[in-house]
């Protein structure tokens, strides 16, 4: 999608016509430290939500709450077609697991399983959790590997791959689950600069293919390129949101302006 | 000093046989049962349940804080006073298993905790429940970490089983003792027994090295 095509979801009304995910009033604190204060978000089908903001702003926590890796203190997370989980009251394991079934996470540090080959890493979820036949999961994994340029790496162990290759395996592992929503937590932050491009390229292709995703990133140029909506967070609240061209080029809020300026002019 | 070569030769096989039919099976059985117990205790410790964790901690404290010989005597000579009479072999297996359980529990617990939190999270994010993540993701990685310390536990156990001679189990050392008492050649027989234990342990160490190599295949060097 070129930056000039403004998707309807990013309009000022803020409520997309067809949200895959909607989040209302998400709250989370660690100890006495309020990390998230009433976050509202939604991601429309095929949309790409980019969460940006300084470290400690809570953006990663938002992502982790969506996947049940953190349990919010309050608020509501709802996927189209269910589940809808209200964290205002105690939440059971079953609800968390239903939430997880809808999304898949790509981690900053890949978190591949070191004792499994690339192929085993990818089919572990489909075969062990989703109980799909191996005969179906393996060819799927192979074609996904081909798509990210890793043909021939299926029998290698993660430590035999470069960081960029490992992260692409991480992405394929997430894709193999066929989630409604892909979550990327700073997917290129741990990579050497020359490896960042390959990974971003894969994510861009997925976005172009219509995968719905939410991504935490410091790559503003990339966010402007792929995102349908950019959300700027600071201090656990959403400071500004909108189309990337607007938020990243003509931010309305002073905090956003400062943040974008600092990232674009580090010296 | 005169070495009675004939006695050395004729006693060698009986001692080795005592090792093969006493020491080794006793060690293997106790280690296997002990490991199961240890895993259970380790999981109790990290369960987050205060009662389970407390019970496991108390057990480990008692086992590690009391001599193995005393544990052995309590079971074999002590329990009959309250009507629990056990044969030498079951007594020995129970005592050694319980002992291994206490020591190995801490090894396994540390190994499980050494697996990065991100591995648990990766398991959860592909939809695995806690137990599946533990079984498929965490324990295989913990196993690799715990092989060297558990091998030490096993080698210690092999040597400790000589204590079973004191509760009438026929193992390598007891055979040596009997021949020594009969021939009055104490130094010779006890040195011979020592050599037999040493050879057993050399073989086990070689096995440990091979196992470590095998488990290391997925780790960067």
UniProtKB/TrEMBL annotation, chain B:
Location in the cell reads:
Cell membrane
The root-end lineage is:
Bacteria, Bacillati, Actinomycetota, Actinomycetes, Micrococcales
What organism, scientifically named, is this protein from?
Arthrobacter sulfonylureivorans
The protein here is known as Amino acid ABC transporter permease
The regions listed as transmembrane in this protein's record are 20-44, 56-79, 187-207
How does the record say this protein sits in the membrane? Multi-pass membrane protein
User: What keywords appear on the UniProt entry?
Assistant: Amino-acid transport, Cell membrane, Membrane, Transmembrane, Transmembrane helix, Transport
| SUPFAM superfamilies assigned to the protein according to its UniProt record, in alphabetical order | MetI-like
- Identify the residues that the record assigns to the ABC transmembrane type-1 domain, covering every copy: 20-208
